[in-house]
Inverse folding.
């Protein structure tokens, strides 16, 4: 365990920063883009002259100018739209996770851009310290994918799913990388909402609960 904590600290202190996905498209940009696509299918909007639709959506939905909303739409399209952003963010997340000593144990990375609330799914073969690995995976993924709202983790061993949990990407801002080795189990695991756990881990919130587990 002492050796494990040694390399845990070294990751946060000495590894170079990993470049994230395309920074010109923010989470808020992408949400506005997806909400606009839905609004453009609204029967009430379809009855409007085409040349005023963006202006009306911008004013009514976002309290902004049509030119501002159009600039957001153009940025997202220039980045490849939802499909292109999924690919670029998946690549950025994979690259970030590969810097971890257990990065080779990551089996799947998927960024779901089918709605404005982007979810990044990660599956990995768990090693000797699930809380530490989970916190590192979530922290690295959140920093690498600026459009991600939720991180969803699945830990498995020998083909069996042992632990499934999720957390808001924003909650990783509470994590100090230089203290993950010390605080992963006692503090940071509580940031997760746990859907499935057969590992006897302590901490985390049961799915649908607003209370922290003891």
């Amino acid at each position: 365990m002492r050796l494990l904590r040694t390399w845990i600290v070294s990751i946060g202190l000495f590894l170079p920063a990993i470049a994230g996905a395309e920074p010109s498209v923010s989470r808020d940009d992408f949400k506005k883009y997806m909400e606009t696509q839905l609004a453009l299918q609204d029967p009430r909007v379809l009855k409007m002259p085409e040349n005023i639709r963006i202006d009306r959506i911008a004013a009514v939905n976002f309290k902004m100018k049509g030119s501002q909303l159009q600039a957001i739409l153009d940025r997202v399209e220039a980045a490849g739209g939802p499909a292109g952003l999924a690919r670029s963010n998946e690549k950025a997340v994979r690259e970030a996770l590969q810097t971890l000593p257990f990065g080779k144990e990551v089996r799947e990375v998927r960024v779901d851009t089918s709605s404005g609330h982007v979810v990044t799914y990660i599956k990995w073969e768990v090693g000797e310290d699930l809380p530490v690995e989970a916190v590192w995976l979530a922290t690295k993924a959140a920093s690498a994918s600026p459009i991600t709202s939720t991180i969803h983790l699945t830990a498995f061993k020998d083909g069996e799913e042992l632990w499934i949990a999720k957390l808001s990407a924003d909650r990783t801002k509470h994590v100090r990388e230089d203290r993950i080795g010390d605080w992963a189990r006692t503090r940071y695991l509580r940031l997760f909402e746990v859907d499935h756990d057969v590992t006897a881990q302590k901490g985390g919130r049961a799915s649908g609960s607003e209370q922290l587990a003891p």
